[in-house]
Amino acid sequence: MREITLSQAVNEAIAEEMRRDPTVFLLGEDVAEAGTPFKVLSGLVEEFGTERIIDTPISEPGFTGIAVGAAMTGSRPIVDLMFGDFIFLIMDQLCNQAAKTHYMSGGKLSVPMVLRTNLGATRRSAAQHSQSLHALVAHIPGLKIAMPSSAYEAKGLMKTAIRDNNPVVIFEDKLMYQDKAPVPEEEYLIPFGVANIKREGRDITLIATSSMVQVAEKAAEILAAEGIEAEVIDPRTIVPLDEATLLESVKRTSRAIVIDEGHQSYGITAEIASRLNEKAFYHLDAPVLRMGAMDVPIPFSPVLEDLTVPTPQTVAANARKLCAGEMIHAA
Amino acid sequence: MPHDVTMPQLGMAQDAGKIVSWLKAAGDAVEKGDALFEVETDKATMEVEAQADGFLTDVCAAEGDDVLVGAVIARISDSAEDSMTTPAPTATKDNDDDLPQGVSVTMPQLGMAQDTGLLVSWQKALGDAVAADDVLFEVETDKSTMEVPAGKDGYLAATLVEAGQEVPVGDPVAIISKDKPEAPVSRSIASASVSKAPATPPVESAVGPAVEAAVEPTVKSPPAQAQPKLGPPPTHGRTLASPKARRLALEQGLDLDALAASGHPQPFHVADLAAAKALPTGAPAAMVAQTMRLTAEIAEDGLPDFAAWAARSHGLDDATALLAGLGGASLGSDNETTVVIQRAGQALTYTVPTGRGLSKVTASDNIVTDLILRDLRGTPIRSADLGVQGAPVLTIMTAGAGLDIALECTHTQLNAQAAITLLSNFAGRMEQPLRHLL
User: Fold this and answer.
1) Which value does ipTM take for this structure?
2) How many domains does chain A have?
């Protein structure tokens, strides 16, 4: 199968959906001529023109509000938010308007909008351009949250998102745009709420999102050399969450670590760990561990920044402890 | 007990307030909550309320005066005559004799609803010369940490509170003397009323090594308290085990408390259950009392004919699986069950699905067993009382043309009614296996 980058996969998904459905359009900062700072959208404006690939002024609340209105009145807008950190600027448009309109209009209005943005540290972008803020919006009922872990997921999830009649937020890891993966030429969609078991194992379940899936897979390789077989599961969408697959796995392995790049406290890892505790308690042979980003502003210093996020080594070290039955001490 | 009236801090950056007007006069009876005076700060004019019942005495600030925050401007006494010339050297009644002469500095009110302040640190050493604007100590309230000025020129002659102590608003925390003190005094809140010991010995020069000696212990004491400890946590008399280990132990009749008593390191995980199994089963009297043994007798062993028919008509040629299927079904469980057949020194494990499908009985490697079938047919053994195991045991023995079937189990495995039902179901199926299909 051909291999393309995550960036190309997103580009293809948007182009295919724009060809298929004339109501799909995209707007955001530097999306047309520049094709975004990450060059994800290069070439789209040439094919679809500036009426459908719209460069906006630097006003996130403005263009997100426009998209919410357009979605309510029959279009399928894709909002391009240059950095996930800017989501703070559009909280009302996204969380108070887009997420609640279907409910508050008694089902008369829908907001079939996609917000594509990014997450991920270790790009030396400092504290205001390195955050992973998906937990903030995952907390709001009415929004679906997709977190592709490779080019294959990025394309399939984006196409599903564009066709979904609800607001969907897609967080791409900005460090993965150049990562290649096999992606079929023929059309495919990845349904929401279906986790992907990336690797099977019997000793411990590593549940990981976005780029942390790679981290978990590398940790699993380290562990395999030591005789510990780790299962790696990518939920692919955290809202809706494929709880059944996670529970089934953890009941088999009796142990789990949840790995996500958002800050650890009050985050995605806490939510998933809590569900496992509630629903698989009597199958657990060790406490479910959370591994998120350290609870600090992401440092600019490369040395410090690299310490704030989970790595294959830290994941493997924790997995080793759990499998050895070591007591996990309270801090 | 008299209560000092101090200038409150009404704004975050306020260090003095102007008394606009007195709303009570000296000698007036006041009740807690009564407005005493009006204060003007750079932001607003506010009324200040009395914090105690009594009589207003010792008013020492006039209308129009600018008064430093925390300064004592009056006193609420038990009687209108209860007056002193100056309210300044206040508080500590019993051991005033030990304290240097001077003006007392009190804990200021830094927030509207604040009752106490935590004295975080002293910014001056005992005996130091201080100016009115010098920061004397730091106070932490529920909102913020703030620096408090001395409010008076002089020398720090006494500290009445140690760093780290919580002090009621208005209570004295230090004494500032006009002259250089001969013997500065350092106390804590606890020691103030009890001991007079910490007073430093008189020294030729109050500022010097001796002063440091007096201050040092007060600074060092707070961090000494909280030390995190590692190592296994105390079990508080409980046996620590993972939820899964506990569940499996219950299902398999393993005693985790006995494992703990044997000294096996906690917490227990599934891997430790092997050690629990290996423990000598020194069947205590209580265990014996909890066991059950029931026997049944049937006139004919129907299984051989049934097995032959099943093999001929349905291709089910594993008679042992059929036996496991009849046993598992007799449990009447809503879930699939695991049945072990023990025969001639061998043990075969099967998974029996719910329902009646004998063709769906499959070999299994489950370790959690629901039922053990000890097949002694074809042996000369006619009676068996071998004791309970980790799961209920059905022993099948030849008795003439028929069978004797014994059930042994504990009350935790099956209650009496469940045991009777299991044995009746199984005996019925063995006599007339076709019943199973009805």
Assistant:
1) 0.77
2) 2
